[in-house]
Specification:
- The chain is of the alpha+beta class.
- It folds into 2 domains: 6-82, Phosphorylase Kinase, domain 1 (2-Layer Sandwich), CATH 3.30.200.20; 86-221, ATP-grasp fold, B domain (D-amino Acid Aminotransferase, Chain A, domain 1, 2-Layer Sandwich).
- The chain has helices at residues 46-63, 99-105, 134-139, 145-168, 213-216, 222-234, and strands at 6-9, 13-17, 23-28, 31-34, 39-42, 70-73, 78-82, 85-86, 89-96, 112-122, 131-132, 171-182, 188-191, 199-203.
- The strands form 3 sheets. Strands 8, 9, 10, 11, 12, 13 and 14 form a 7-stranded antiparallel beta sheet that branches.
- β1 (6-9) and β2 form a beta hairpin.
- The longest helix has 24 residues, at 145-168.
- It binds thymidine-5'-phosphate.
């Protein structure tokens, strides 16, 4: 399958059309941004790691009954995916207080919570992806109630599957961000990526950060951290 035309260039990926109107090719870049584009840089080989880790985890999720946009990995950085219309929401799933939730609620990072927390943000860079709730989503008709219920159900299932899987690799899943899309026949599927860019991964024992927070917070060591995640999950 060949790339035909560049459809879109995002902060971390390019998306190309193909000869098949139902399929796209995603091309992962090494470019890294944080703070809605305020901080820019590169993380060497990030594109390769995020492509491979995303596909590895999406295959696992498919096996566990969560439909995804994944079709086929065609190179280190490129994957064929189903064309979807993206539901304009970022779904954030949180197990342990960190990042913006820790700041918002005045909690120390690492504080466990009694229940998994689901948050929705409206995907709009110009507005800074504001947090919204079910009422906003219904009022703006970003998706139907049935679709949102399914998105919430899949998000919690993904959390269960990934938390257990990552624990085996000595990685604690602190929180993560998901995006969903609708295929041409109206099926809701998991889209976008699941990678150290979009998840907080902590070493279970040392609590060392193995994710993009190292870049966001100028801690250094992001390249080694990304490599370590791929090594723990895929043995390479
Ligand atoms: P937050 O604590 O900054 O709200 O982030 C929560 C989780 O969602 C964290 O794992 C990083 C991820 N995330 C993204 O992948 N993209 C985003 O634009 C944001 C705000 C968070």
């Amino acid at each position: 399958m060949q790339k035909v035309k560049e459809l879109y260039e995002g902060k971390a990926k390019k998306v190309w059309t193909t000869e098949d109107p139902e399929l796209l090719i995603v091309d992962y870049k090494d470019d890294a941004t944080a703070g809605n584009g305020a901080k820019k840089g590169t993380i060497h080989d990030k594109g390769i790691i995020n492509n491979r880790v995303t596909n590895h985890l999406m295959k696992l999720l498919e096996k566990e009954g969560v439909p995804t946009h994944l079709v086929e990995e065609i190179s280190d950085r490129e994957t064929i995916v189903k064309k979807v219309s993206i539901v304009p929401l970022e779904v954030i799933v949180r197990n342990i207080a960190a990042g913006s939730l820790a700041n918002r609620l005045g909690l120390e990072e690492g504080t466990p919570m009694k229940k998994t927390v689901l948050e929705y943000c409206y995907k709009d860079d110009a507005l800074g992806d504001p947090m919204v709730n079910e009422y906003h989503i219904m009022a703006m008709e970003w998706c139907t109630k049935e679709e949102l219920d399914l998105i919430a159900k899949y998000s919690l299932k993904i959390n269960e599957v990934l938390s257990a899987y990552l624990k085996e690799a000595n990685i604690q899943l602190i929180d993560f961000k998901l995006e969903f899309g609708k295929t041409s026949d109206g099926t809701i599927v998991l889209a976008d990526e699941i990678s150290p860019d979009t998840c907080r991964f902590w070493d279970t024992v040392t609590k060392e950060k193995l994710d993009k927070d190292r870049f966001r917070r100028d801690m250094g060591g992001e390249e080694d951290a990304y490599k370590e995640v791929m090594k723990r999950l895929m043995g390479e």
